[in-house]
User: Fold these one by one.
Assistant:
Number 1:
Amino acid sequence: MPKDRIIATVMAASFAAVDDSAFLPPLNAVPNPDEHTLNPLLTDEKQKQLNKDKNDLRIDNERYLRSHPEVRDIVTHFMQRVLSEYPEDLHQFANEHFADPDLRDKVRQCKIDNARYAKIFSEIP
């Protein structure tokens, strides 16, 4: 798998909120409308409720991630491995990575190493 494809795949799996409106048609759009399908799939009220629910879910997810820093540590460790090893099969690599019984110890060591590197780099003038 080419390096830029791996990076794009990893970035797509990040926790950043993505505005999918640029990639997908509006949820209330009617596919191929004709005289028999003039009504929208969702009423304005239901669309507003759906948008509110999506926003609430994103906020809940953000709160969860902020209150569980171990998730960031796990993702950081995974991304460092992906970017340093460039696996051919990213899905298989991810399966093996997250099924590793020693993952907790490896993530802990990664966090220690990253803190040490941060200290070293902060001392460079």
Number 2:
Amino acid sequence: MGDELASQCKTVLDTTIAETETYPAQVEDFAILAKDHLDDEIRLYEQILIQARTSFGINILIALLTVIGQPRSSSSNLSVLKSLFPIFSSALRQSLI
């Protein structure tokens, strides 16, 4: 019985030592995996940001061309600004979606 218990203890000890030796490699592998995942997330959000900025810029350009193309008198500057506000706020909302 004593030899059997000693054999089981040796097996547990050998397994524990083997796991302890592989632990640093597992930590390194996990760190690489996590870094790669976060790098992919950063690239994705950079692409989304570029698309949003492009969309926002195009919407502003369309809004300006629309307002510029409309005939107006010199006293209508305030009405032009008022007409721009909903267009710009809409463009901003769309670019943030």
Number 3:
Amino acid sequence: MTAPNWKGMALTGAVAMATMMAGCAAQPQPPQPPAAGVADTGPQGGRGTPEGCQADKLGDNALIGKTEAEAAKLLEGCAWRFGNREGQHMPGTMDYNPQRRTIDVMGGKVTAVRRG
């Protein structure tokens, strides 16, 4: 009867464990470029500017049918964000802000505007 080769078994176990760990490592994904129009998909707009919100002079329905870039231009000085952009739901907050508009964009055009 021969004695077990502990060094060989430990080395084999270490190699097997390292191989399994490497297989589970997350693979880096290349960053996806944003859709044409507004480059930033984070929170858009601010609490307001001294010039005010140009879209307040129009109704919210006036934004529907505009291109994403046209809507972003009209919303300068306004608090706003994307709710759904080309089928991708965007993160939002649960706080209610009646001045903030949440817009949905599909096919490059605004399809819905909500407040809150």
Number 4:
Amino acid sequence: MASPGRPDTVLVPRCPVIFNGTNWGDFVFHMEVHMDGQLLWGDLTGERICPPRPLLPTPPTYPTDADDNAKNDLLEAFEAEMESYQSHLGVYETWLCKEKSAKNISLASMEVDL
């Protein structure tokens, strides 16, 4: 685990029982309780899978003969697509962040020489 004296370190909330290669039964029980408390157990078990990465919408292109109403409709549709994109991107990025936390906790909860 990182030294708390360094300002650029991040402390990882590791499981109270460290896996040493021989204590699987105790470790997995405590790991489930610990990760459930961190709201990350479903990320480890695969219960919560990674959502698809959203695709950035393409800005509208206006036909040369489009009137203002047609342009406005295209722009409104694009803005709605952008709102949906932002929402889905937030869900995707949150999942990635939680996955990284789960990996960090898992690795910090095992002896290094395994």
